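Researcher: Please generate the 3D structure of the following complex. Treat every line as part of one assembly.
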Amino acid sequence: MISSIAELISDRIGAMPAGERRAAQTLIANYPLTGLKTVAEFSAAAGVSSPTILRFVARLGFQNYPEFQSALQDELAAQLQSPASRTLNPGSAGGAVSPMLEATLDNMRETFRHLTDKQLADIAARLAERRGKTFLIGGRFTDPLARYMAAHLAIIQPDVYHLAGQESIWRDRLIDMGKRDVLVIFDIRRYQESLVRFAEKAHHRGVQIILFTDQWLSPIARFARHVIAGRTAVPSAWDSSAALFVVAETLIGAVTRQLEAAGAKRIRDLESLR
Amino acid sequence: MISSIAELISDRIGAMPAGERRAAQTLIANYPLTGLKTVAEFSAAAGVSSPTILRFVARLGFQNYPEFQSALQDELAAQLQSPASRTLNPGSAGGAVSPMLEATLDNMRETFRHLTDKQLADIAARLAERRGKTFLIGGRFTDPLARYMAAHLAIIQPDVYHLAGQESIWRDRLIDMGKRDVLVIFDIRRYQESLVRFAEKAHHRGVQIILFTDQWLSPIARFARHVIAGRTAVPSAWDSSAALFVVAETLIGAVTRQLEAAGAKRIRDLESLR
DNA sequence: GGAACGCTGTATCTTATGTTACGTATTTTG
DNA sequence: CAAAATACGTAACATAAGATACAGCGTTCC
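Model: Done. Output below.
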């Protein structure tokens, strides 16, 4: 069975004319990058003419060059999204548990790889500056994450509200929301219409939205000031929210640190209470 | 110093108009693949128009779109050649994020290292066999985990209840609990007296208790049939529940798989509903 | 509340990319 | 060795890509 284009090439490279073989070797040499460039660049790199490149991809079974490039991109996408955790502790390997854990660890690394310090610091700063109120809400499976975050934030600062219950209930809370306020939304596939509607209305009221979503981006991203895209794919019937959970915890920690650094009175009061 | 385009983006994303910010977020969400596609595809993915994409890359300092793509390809080439550097975003290394993430990943590895497949399989089996009811409850910060687990389990099987609200409310639910029932409790430091009391009473009624706790073990461990001890230490003012969260997700997956394997009618009915 | 500014999308244009046709060179085969 | 078949490159073509001009709209700031 042939799964990757690289395999396909090495499978057929023997039956290729000289020019096309040069093309193949050039592509393999730094796979798959050469294939993502233009035909002209590819041909120049291989030292052959453009038509030879086209005949080469045709021989591989592709209808045209763009189709070939799409295939390469898909392959690359799959590769980038699951870096195939080689760095895993071998002690836990072997069982049925391991694939799940491995995927989760990969998801977290990937999620944070796309997340810079600055982004997180910006979001944390926005959450820490007490200009207005903070609202949190989530979807069917992610609402617990909103609760978790709210439970922590509500301790270190005032005016933190988790929006619970039925749609009509939190829709009425829109009245309280304005430009100075922040709305944290958790929404992963399958995206909930009620949340999108709510986000849109909040956005029109000038509320700044911080969105936790998956890599396919909830439609709410359209209205969001900040978007955190977490990886959710695991070998399970369900998607995993673990990466988003860790981002949430990281943010909670960052906000706490910022408030401490700012010498917030509330924090000192809290410590004296313990 | 800015070395990667991803960094460049997150550096300037704050100063971007809404449309371009959307483009930026879409690109970051699955970086760098979207940037390698055509302007039309990029714009479609981001839900904005082509000119917005072009203005976006112009703002990043590129003369034209091909130049932008070349830069992405160069970056990708460097990454593909040294996979080690790919593990973490160099931008976030050394920052405040990395220690938190590292600690969390370590916690998970450690947690699962002390957790055998058999333990998890036993617990999953206990949750999957539908002899009685399943109750879930958590403490101040861990109750969201109970909710999260309940939200999933309640779908694949009947008689799953999350115990919410005030102590008096769930204390009264004890009446419904018996030998055939399971109680899942989340309790980490500082352990809540109310939960301990509740666990003790449930235990005396013959309820089987599955406890999620930290490595120092909640006093409830005394009454529990199964104990899952997760690592919680992170460089933050708060403890991390992330490891427990992942165990919960793993269990949810395992229970689902067992029910599927058993050919549970409910699972088939569910699938026909979708 | 009005005016200026800036952002965004539609439509048009231009560029350059992929594609194809054809003639020459090279190899293969009888 | 000759003839056929195949491979390859040059050059012209059509298409689709990126770029630009402009008008409408929302936002902000007097």
